[in-house]
Amino acid sequence: MNRLCSCTLILVLGLLAGLWAPLALAKEAVTLGILSYRPEPVIQERYSLLAEYLSQETGLEVRLRVFNQDDMNRALASNRVDFFLTNPSHFLMIRSERSLTGVLATLQREWQGRSTGSIGGLILTRAERSDINRLADLRGKSIATPGIHYLGGFQAAALELRDAGVDILRHNRMVHLGNHDRVIRAVLTGDTDVGFVRTGVYEELIRENPALADELKMIHVQSLAGFPFAVSTRLYPEWPLVSLPHVDSQIVRQVASALFALQPGHPAARAAGLAGFSPPADYQSVEDLARTLRMAPYDQVPRVTWVDVLNQYRIWVLTVAVLFVMLVVTSLWLSRKKRQLATEERRQRELIGSWPQPMLMIRNGELINCNRAAVDLVGYTSEASLLGKGLPTFSPHAQPDGTPSLQKADALIRRVTTGEVAQSEWLFVRSDGSDVWVDMTLAPVYEHDQESPSILCSWYDITRRKYAEERQRLALRVFENAREAIFITDAHGVVMDINEAYSLITGRDHKVAVGSLPPMPMDEGSAILIAARKHGVWTGEFSSRHRDGHAIVLSLTLSSVFDEQGQLSHFVGVFSDVTQLKETEKQLRTMAHYDSLTGLPNRVLFSDRLQQSMAQARRQNYQLAVIYIDLDHFKPINDAFGHDAGDGLLVEVARRMRSTLREEDTLARLGGDEFAAIVVNVADQQTLEALLARLLTKIGDPVWVADHSVEVSASLGYTVYPQNVELDGDQLLRQADQAMYRAKREGKNRYCRFSDSGS
């Protein structure tokens, strides 16, 4: 009997295991619904890879469904969708009808390498419509839209027109077509005068059919820096991706992690034209838009009741009403007081729980209630993670002002318990370790049966503002401590502020510099401003003067600064003193091209000038002569009286030869006691030989060195250019050198002309 029972139990367990195995292997499925703002096949193709990506990253089976607005509303009502992606106006309408957990992420669109988390509307008409050029021209025209619950396709443009004095709901015929492609088609075919579409659709259609750019005209185009699409309206947050309340929180976190991990280069992102997803944006601006236009869910008008009617006759019934109210209040006050207080407390908790701003209730220094926004701000998973703890639990040990968080929190709570409303900036630490700054307000709330009031605490996230302030302080420190001079001018180039380096380099203190023009080239000051305005930046070097009068050389970079509307607002200049650098460069150039002893050009500069002189002789059709000069009997003088005496002799001989030659001629020292000369525009042989004779005479005159009178002579060889065959400069110098050696052989202190025969 026992064996039979054991066998039966084993058989039952085996059957259960066989049934459970397929169920354990099956993936859990979730449905992602997307609003079809374009034709359904287009949306299906674009977002199918996103569904596959979410399935792969989360381990879930993510099913993609594309709906129009009515179908999505029905699907949400029957819980056939777990997550949905729709435009912000439609999201507000859904949120008013259903209980939602909040926005999971905000879509980031990508276009041609630039991303944006904003959406707007674009107003289009046919290119040939010369009667429609501005918003006022739309009065009375027929308008095509996807539908009234499309933010970019209707509401954004409706608000712009309303501000321009055009109420399209009263003065225009509206045609609702369901998606943006039909709107474009209606405009092109002439079925309507104007069309409203969301930003990005126009660019997508132009990419598919470039000819549309010549057929359509945009109205009221805005110039928004950094926004990649053409837009006719102000901007609002992009599409939200929302999870339904019935979805398990673990699945929500998995999907959120996958969305935030999506990179712009991923195939799923490229297919959908996305740059990824960002944390939920603030949709308050969309709510304000709907309220202004009285669109759903803010389209209900208060009903006129008998109270309104009686209000017109309040003078007659006021006394009776007051007496009646006093009687009712007096008779029911004691019995209803407790119920009223309980109702008020419950209403207060519900208000705090649904408020988008982080709100908390504190009693005896501990959190007793909070809303979801507070939980999200500090990065915890649920309200239970915060309850029962004090503010210092989620704070660093000390606040940035140095006060311990526990001590500062106790001081604030003591102030509030005395009836005061306290406000303070506070630094929290999120669960992931990151910092978040809040503007915290604490106010007393008096409840029944409580000796001391509870505390209502609200947080306003100011993290971005604090980081911006820190960046401003850092920029100011950089400005003040930079070694380069920095100045800021207005749009006309008048200095508004300078740093200390500016005063050190120019000698002008802050009082003198502000209100005047910065250092700029005298002959092109206004031209520099024009160039910087046109090209964004101007860079150059120029000579200026220190306030005490000495010359300086400045290297300036002048940059344009534009405001949010793209208008020039300031110039920022950075310059440094490069006087010493320029002087060093000048000295280096001198050392590279001139002889350090005589100051004459060296062999390098001589060769360069010879090439230039030869080219000029060819152009102007005249002769030049190249003379090679070698001093005779120089070495004995150098040996007898020393190198200083020899150097003095070379300097004096060089001066005499330079004074004998004309200004346009060139004399160079090639090395030692060897010189070379270029004589340009030689008239005839007799004139040249007369010049050579004067050179020999000047060189042969006595020279007083080392307290002695010494004499030297020179051997000169020369050649002329041009000749029968084309020669380069080195060949001419070698010819003159050969002629010089011939003069040496013939007895020195003479000149010889180069000849091919060598005689």
From TrEMBL:
Domain GGDEF: start-end pairs: 622-756
Annotated EC: 2.7.7.65
Domain called PAS: residue spans: 471-515
Keyword Hydrolase (UniProt): no
Superkingdom in the source lineage: Bacteria
Keyword Lipid biosynthesis attached: no
Pfam families, sorted: GGDEF, PAS, PAS_9, Phosphonate-bd
Record-linked PANTHER family: BIOFILM ARCHITECTURE MAINTENANCE PROTEIN MBAA (PTHR44757:SF2), DIGUANYLATE CYCLASE DGCP (PTHR44757)
Protein name: Diguanylate cyclase
Species, as recorded: Marinobacter alkaliphilus
